[in-house]
């Protein structure tokens, strides 16, 4: 599914500077690798042309033959695209669903409904805005100090691990500053960036899935996680917005089909990326349709690993003036330690599907970690989702 790097665009000036400075940034990549090229993805168009069945690019005269050749499958009485490994592997849309092994899978484009919730004009809203501005100023000061350190150390190079730590800190600061900017600007283009049609589609498809007695489970997958304890993501505006908007959908589904229980949540598993870690969380009784769901974040092979937040594994929310645990992290693999004790366990994941109904899944983490100058491969113990 498309992620944030599949949607961002660079202004011409910044893109030109980024492109021309490429050789220098490569030479100094341990300090100023900004991970950008000449341009962005043209608001997702590059992703669409690369991975989707891009009907817009097919001439009208060829469209009937294309549909007859590739839209040969049926799902619940509807004609749909046939995915053929090794022959035709285009996706039908930037969000879609399919059924395999009695399981309904829902792929979403979270870039179009992760816009941070707008700050209101109330006293609380103004306090939040002032807090964000102060936080942004503090982050800019920290970033400036780190950049000064890198320039002073350019003639006296640090170790690879120390350079990597500084690069990680600068990258995280940039991400936090960008998220604050999005929160401060939220509401100005809300009608454009919140994909109401997609959310309505998800609600209708989930209800239809629950009304089909042959379906034994439901799995959602999209890029931005609604629940996460990775240090830079857990309290981002877009993380909280994802949680809010997905809850709205699942609450409507629950009102139509059934209330979630610990034995039968509305969705059996949600798969995400974006956070640079491997993490498994489980929601408890949130009071919403997202209760009792397992959330797996498989981003542990990303550009640079991140640490878990210092606040710990439990995510809290305030209900009626009282703090309550809404989700708990049961596994976190990411960056730990510093200097000689620095560890970076890069990870992947295999999920096995068990027979029977309701759906039961088993996750097997796969890990590659570099320490003592060598790579070590190992598999963690499987766990049931």
Label this structure with key terms:
385 residues; alpha+beta; Purple Acid Phosphatase, chain A, domain 2; 8-stranded mixed β-sheet; 10 helices
Numbering strands along the chain, what is their spatial order in the largest sheet?
Answer: 3-4-5-6-8-7-10-9
Indicate the radius of gyration in whole angstroms: 22 Å
Q: How many strands, what sense, and barrel or not for the largest sheet?
A: 8 strands, mixed
Text of the CATH class of the domain at 93-116 and 195-341: Alpha Beta
Q: What is the strand content?
A: 15-25%
Q: What is the number of helices?
A: 10
CATH homologous superfamily heading of the domain at 93-116 and 195-341: Metallo-dependent phosphatases
Give the helix/strand class. Answer: alpha+beta
Mean pLDDT: 87
Low-confidence stretches: none
Oligomer: single chain
CATH architecture of the domain at 93-116 and 195-341: 4-Layer Sandwich
Order of helices and strands: HHHHHEEEEHHHHEHEEEEEEEEE
SS elements, strand count:
14
The helical percent reads 25-40%
Report how far the terminal alpha carbons are from each other: 22 Å
Enter the CATH topology name of the domain at 93-116 and 195-341: Purple Acid Phosphatase, chain A, domain 2
What's the shape?
globular
How do you describe this structure in short?
By secondary structure, the protein is of the alpha+beta class. Helices cover 34% and strands 21% of the residues.
